[in-house]
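#structure-requests
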Amino acid sequence: MHEAVPDPSVVEYPTSDGKPLAESDLHFDRLTYAAHALKVRYADTPDVYVGANMLVYDEPGNPRRHLAPDVFVVFGVPNHRRDLFKIWEEKPPSFVLEVTSKSTRREDMRTKRQRYAAWGVQEYFLYDPRSEYLAPPFQGLTLREGVYESMPLTRFPNGQRGYLSRVLGIHLYLKGSELRLFDPTKGCDLRTYEEAQREIAELRARIRSLTGE
């Protein structure tokens, strides 16, 4: 007798796997910079979604079959808040960034790499902020015929060397050991939250000085 296949529409899909967002303050800072910068970049784009550390399910009816990419970008889906992401109801990500470490090495280098390739994720970036195992500590991979190949390093307009994300149209590079995202259309790095707040404060101060308030 065949086991009944559960109806995907009535299966409960958890929104958390119980794991921490990041294993250290450093990993958290690097992850949140990339997520914040990309969310701001696509804030006014209605059909691009940027997710961070969200459970992504890829098998209808199976709540145990999921991954949690650190940062991912999906094109062609509505840009609104979600609690989880179901690939079969939407689309697979085109871009994934993992802020990796020695403790997540096996999952990031094997499990996630294989599953992302199966999903059709076009670009997969790995960033090891502590240089615990990855050499070099930041690497870009592009999907060709179902297999990830290393991206070539290129020199950017800002003089830095890094990787061109053709999917996003931006450059990713290390400034010292810190990951930065450079937007060639604006000629500058995408801002951190702190940098953005500082610029707003400076702008307000200039306005007050001009208006005499």
